[in-house]
Amino acid sequence: MSPTRTPVKALSGSGKLVYGCDYNPEQWDSAIWREDVRLMKQAGVNLVAVNIFGWAELESLPGEYSFERLDEILDLLHANNIGVNLGTGTSSTPAWLTTLYPGILPQSASGTRAWPGGRQAWCPSSPQYREHALRLVGETVRRYGAHPAVRLWHVSNELGCHNALCYCDVSAGAFRSWLQARYGTLDALNKAWGTTFWSQRYSSWEQILPPRTTVSTNNPTQVLDFHRFSSDELLGYYQAEAEVLRQHSTVPVTTNFMVTAHIRNLDYWSWAPHMDVIANDHYLDHRLDAPATELAFAADATRGLAQGRPWLLMEHSTSAVNWQPRNIAKGPGEMLRNSLAHLARGADGLCFFQWRASVQGSEKFHSAMLPHAGTDSRIWREVLELGSILETLAEVAGTTVKAEAALVFSWEAWWAYDQESHPSSDVRYLDQVHAMYAAFWEAGITVDVVAPGADLSRYKLAVVPGLYLVREKDSAALAEYVANGGTALVTYFSGIVDENEKVLAGGYPGAFRTMLGIRSEEFYPLPPGRTLALSNGSTASLWSEAMRLEGAEAQLTFTEGHLSGTAAVTRNRHGAGNAWYLGTVLDPASLRDVVTGAAGEAGINVLGSPTGLEVVVRSGADHSYVFLINHSDEDHKYAAHGHELIVGEDVSHAVVVPAGAVRVVRTSDPAPQTAGPSASQKDDESD
Ligand code: GAL
User: Fold this and answer.
1) How far apart are CA 107 and CA 102, in angstroms?
2) 518-523 and 545-549: which strand pairing?
3) Ligand 1 pocket check: which of 92, 281, 354 to mutate, most ligand atoms within 8 Å of Cβ?
4) In whole angstroms, what is the distance from residue 469 CA to residue 408 CA?
5) Using one digit for the tens of pLDDT, what is the confidence trace for 105-135?
6) Beta strands per DSSP E along 235-338
7) Ligand 1 centroid vs 321 CA: distance in angstroms?
8) Which of ligand 1's atoms lies nearest the C-alpha of 256?
9) Is the Cα dihedral 501, 507, 509, 514 positive or negative?
10) For 475-530, what is each residue's pLDDT tens digit?
């Protein structure tokens, strides 16, 4: 457990906001380093991550270390007052290591060993990998543990990005030990995994394997436990590196999380308490329908991991990435909107991957702060602009975001939900989470993202999308929250199984039936493209269920098909609170109506209508900062009183946010906890 949590602003060296990047000087001649540092200073960069992929450079042969080039880099950065986020360099193994120990290379579920030549090709349980990596960490921290440039230790890089799940024999052994610790006896394991099914019973620990490729489907609890094990195994590895670092250095330690739509292998709720700084990497994902909304969700989730305190955006991109099918470049102003959306949602530092665009290797078409085009480029001008805006916004550092609604999110539920052999492969956990989140985003209601079982007492509303797997204590905590006057909004395929993937029988959703006052007998997923008419004139898709009311009132009913006349959306009075259930997929407009209806009833001041204006408030002791991010093609007007920081003008009653622009108003007005575009946005007058 991390003894202290370091304030992110301390990493800037001045108590201001952090502005930084990954820097890979090993890809460049030392003559370029000086030019780089000069330009970094011009941009206002104050923290640079180096040595992320440095292993082969530092230890070119086993046990032969050469730190001279890294010494020079650290000294150069320090002389220019730029702090270092020092990588331990263990993320990618040198060729000699996997040649000596090919067993380090991870193995897929079907038994294929990965070849070296990419990155992160190591098995998280490999003793040879760990021994050599920790030896390098020891050498590095002994050399730089007290170097004045070093402000943060950056363990490995995006642990588990490529290698989270390894199915080799070494991993199998580690998995067994993990299972022994979890279950104690084979009987307990057989019971938890339901191994009476399909003759899967184990009579010795040695028979148990990771869920390797079978000719049919794997045991779902085995799959789930393998996810839990794999997350714990990498966390154990993180802790091993952190322990070596802490023996020789008092500098805070962290690693970069990947709270993002396309990576789901680590349960960051269990990782977060071990970090001195919560740091996330986020890239806009153009494979999604609403990339900017997903960015906001990831930022809110990262703030949740930081328990509401400021966090660090360790990586994002100035423009295109290189790893999506079509790598869409950002349009003018888009980088600023993205970067400041992270800041609005609680980041106290913004860093990019990477400083100077590579000219070789598979990331050579990935954008950077300094693009191939050089300084005579839009990207560079926007990089300078962002640097100066961060200077202007320095006073925001340390302030926090306060929300009246919470969204319950669970990596474990995600692993369980998206397994095979479920009622419909068209319903996916993250789609549900994103749909619910988008409805709040569009209504201008800021949400905190919390873990199942979190204390909800300070929230007026808790939204629980697709919490398919839920522990008894966590469903009880939610019911108690509602009984005490809270409002819950639970969506379909929630509360179905316990922590061992065992169905809570007796009618769905077993874990929430009483609180919701309903009982479903059967699910009727709909094929893509098929819809069912609803009583409000809209249509439902993808999911329906045969629901009986046991105390709840129907808010919407199906008016078509054999479920015609039965409930699709319900509300139940439970104790002093209300529990809503969405038993189908609503179209976005109906979903927004339900969300704003439930939120309004819960006492949340919903002012907004969907306009593309993202509004988030950060508050400090004396002031609040209203961030206004205009994603639309139209100018918007927002009622506010105070001082606008980006253009630097007083605002007496409304501020205009031009199309595509961002404005930040410092105000002494009591913090608007929920901020939607105000009714006065249609006024013609502005300041
Ligand atoms: C991250 C990684 C960086 C770089 C970047 C490209 O996943 O940490 O090293 O590869 O992606 O988007």
Assistant:
1) 11
2) antiparallel
3) 281
4) 12
5) 999 999 999 999 999 999 999 999 999 999 9
6) 253-254, 256-257, 279-281, 311-315
7) 9
8) 8
9) negative
10) 999 999 999 999 999 999 999 999 999 999 999 999 999 999 999 999 999 999 99
